[in-house]
Amino acid sequence: MAFCSACGASVPDNTAFCPSCGKSQGTAAGQTTPAAQPVAGTEGLSENVAGALCYLVGWITGLIFFFVDKRRSVRWHAAQSIVIFGGLTIVSWALGVMFSATLFSGAWAAWSLISLLHSVLWLLGLVLWILCMVKAYQGVMFRVPVAAGIADSFVK
Predict the structure, then answer these.
(1) Whole-angstrom Cα distance, residue 66 to residue 73?
(2) Helix, strand or coil, per DSSP, at residue 65
(3) N or C: which end of the chain has fewer CB within 10 A?
(4) How far is CA 7 from each of CA 4, 11, 78, rounded to the nearest angstrom?
(5) pTM over 0.85
(6) Residue 58's CB: how many other CB atoms inside 10 A?
């Protein structure tokens, strides 16, 4: 048990600030410095967790983290999430419109092909969702080929 140099109160080990007066106690092993504290608005989230959460609900959480978090890596993951899952959502909607049009027109061959494409798109989205979340949690900047370049331009 250490004591505060300013007020003399007892300070638990590995504590950065005095619980009584708030004065900094220096940086002992295992302590965090004020520069390592999270950015306002995302308090308590480390960069890898925030990066993984950017992909949680697709482009929706991507938008939230893009505008709330100011850390570069988190904004990059958010931008990539917006591009990937926003693009997949738009393509899925377009396939849905074509699916409906072929269903009511009686073009069964086209209906089957569009249904197959929609299933493949859904599977691709699921694989990308899992892969991006895991890689972001591991702290890896996993770059999806087309989306990463667009995400780079969003973050700059």
Answers:
(1) 10
(2) helix
(3) N
(4) 6, 10, 44
(5) no
(6) 19
